[in-house]
Write a structure and sequence with these properties.
It contains 15 helices and 16 strands. With 412 residues, the protein is an alpha/beta fold. The protein folds into two domains: 2-68 and 367-408, Urease, subunit C, domain 1 (Roll); 70-358, TIM Barrel, CATH 3.20.20.140. Helix 5 (150-165) runs parallel beside helix 6. The chain binds zinc ion. Zinc ion binds at residues 74, 76, 244, 318.
């Protein structure tokens, strides 16, 4: 059925081209059919063929601001347990690596997650997604990485596959077996790399459980050389490369992302100018994760360095139980402004069109253009600046995925 949105105070297109240019259309209308946008523009320019649609086919935006469905292009969504005690320790001054060395950190979540069953994890993921939809999030990249052995890494990807069948949210799966070296391989890390390259990647690819392969490169995780080996193996099996790069120190991982034409390099707080240049040339999307910088009280990425270099800069939550225990993408966008120096318009592009690029979905989602999926959000705010300026209120009136309502605020 052909359907139409009318009475939007303004519709924010988020075209891919120019940093900070959102292509806002005042008094807009949008038409879709079979979940795909067919027409978008000023209501007064609506083609006559759409003027006679029956009332039940028309969605009244009631003067809200319409933005594309938000894309969270970096999450660690499936995990068991939380780590709020470590949060309290860090507030007292303990550092991330110190906690990890004492048996906390990622490995603690690995222990909890290995013990959890598929059904339990699916329900938890669905619970998170339900709350994310209320924030206007319609596409989510989700990583494994708390299994760290063949059975448990595949289990986590299977959790996402099953959850994906039970939610309207679009899920994109990434294998992150190279998150950290699991305890049983601590003294034989090369054997763990052997397991990743010889078994986990081939099986994840063969079972079509993942689209991307990611590696956490940093002190306490993997080296650039190890990452090259894992990502090249992933590429051979059809998994596109992503990287956790230069979060805690400048390791050269961003350069590796450029060398391998990774779809994205994420974190990048400590990358240098050469890496930025190389990523710009290679067309790698940079992903800012300011919630992690805030929680770890570490140096945030300097957005202007990347934008001026011509690198598309996405914004994501990095949702995980340690360094970023929030899936609030609006908060991430606000922090991208206040900590990283993006404008609100750039931050919104970062969580829509650039985030879509960071997961290879820019042809489908991330902007409200003809031919793309009708994923959109109705907001009770006067403009984009206000959306990221006055935090704390419940501004999402409704969320649509593929032209279908997946959330309506009860008071709306
Ligand atoms: Zn991450």
């Amino acid at each position: 059925m052909t359907r139409m949105l009318v009475n939007a105070a303004s519709l924010v297109v988020c075209p891919p081209d120019t940093p900070g240019v959102l292509g806002e259309i005042p008094d807009a209308a949008m038409v879709w059919d079979a979940g795909i946008i067919r027409w978008v523009g000023r209501r007064r320019d609506l083609p006559s063929s759409y003027r006679e649609l029956p009332a039940e086919a028309v969605v009244d935006a009631e003067q809200s601001l319409v933005i594309p469905g938000l894309v969270d292009c970096h999450t660690h969504l499936a995990f068991a347990g939380w780590r709020e005690d470590e949060f309290a320790q860090r507030c007292r001054g303990a550092d991330y690596l110190e906690i990890a060395r004492a048996g906390g950190g990622i490995l603690r979540t690995v222990e909890d997650t290995r013990r959890a069953g598929v059904d339990e994890l699916v329900l938890r993921v669905l619970g998170f997604l339900q709350q994310m939809v209320r924030l206007g999030i319609t596409t989510v990249e989700c990583k494994s990485g708390y299994g760290l052995d063949l059975a448990n890494e595949l289990k986590l990807l299977e959790v996402y596959r099953r959850a994906g069948r039970r939610t309207a949210v679009r899920l994109v799966r990434t294998l992150l077996a190279a998150h950290v070296v699991p305890p049983e391989f601590r003294t034989r890390r090369s054997e763990y790399l052997e397991l990743i390259c010889g078994e986990i990647i081939p099986q994840a690819a063969e079972q079509r459980l993942a689209s991307f392969c990611d590696v956490f490169v940093d002190e306490g995780a993997f080296t650039v050389e190890e990452a090259r080996r894992v990502l090249v193996t992933g590429l051979r099996h059809g998994l596109r490369a992503k990287l956790h790069a230069d979060q805690l120190s400048n390791t050269g991982a961003a350069q590796l992302a450029a060398e391998l034409h990774a779809v994205s390099a994420d974190h990048l707080e400590h990358s240098g100018a050469e890496a930025r240049q190389a990523m710009a040339r290679a067309g790698v999307v940079a992903v800012a994760l300011p919630i992690a910088s805030l929680y770890l009280r570490q140096r945030p990425l300097v957005a202007r360095d990347w934008i001026d270099m011509g690198v598309p800069l996405a914004v994501a939550t990095d949702f995980n139980p340690g360094s970023a225990p929030s899936f609030d993408l609006r908060l991430a966008m606000m922090l991208a402004c206040t900590l990283c120096g993006m404008t609100p318009a750039e931050a919104l592009q970062g969580a829509t069109i650039h985030a879509a690029r960071a997961i290879g979905m820019a042809e489908e989602v991330g902007s409200l253009e003809v031919g793309k999926r009708a994923d959109f959000v109705l907001l009770d705010v006067p403009n984009v600046n206000h959306y990221l300026y006055h935090l704390g209120s419940d501004v999402v009136r409704a969320t649509y995925v593929g032209g279908r309502s997946v959330y309506q605020r009860s008071s709306a």
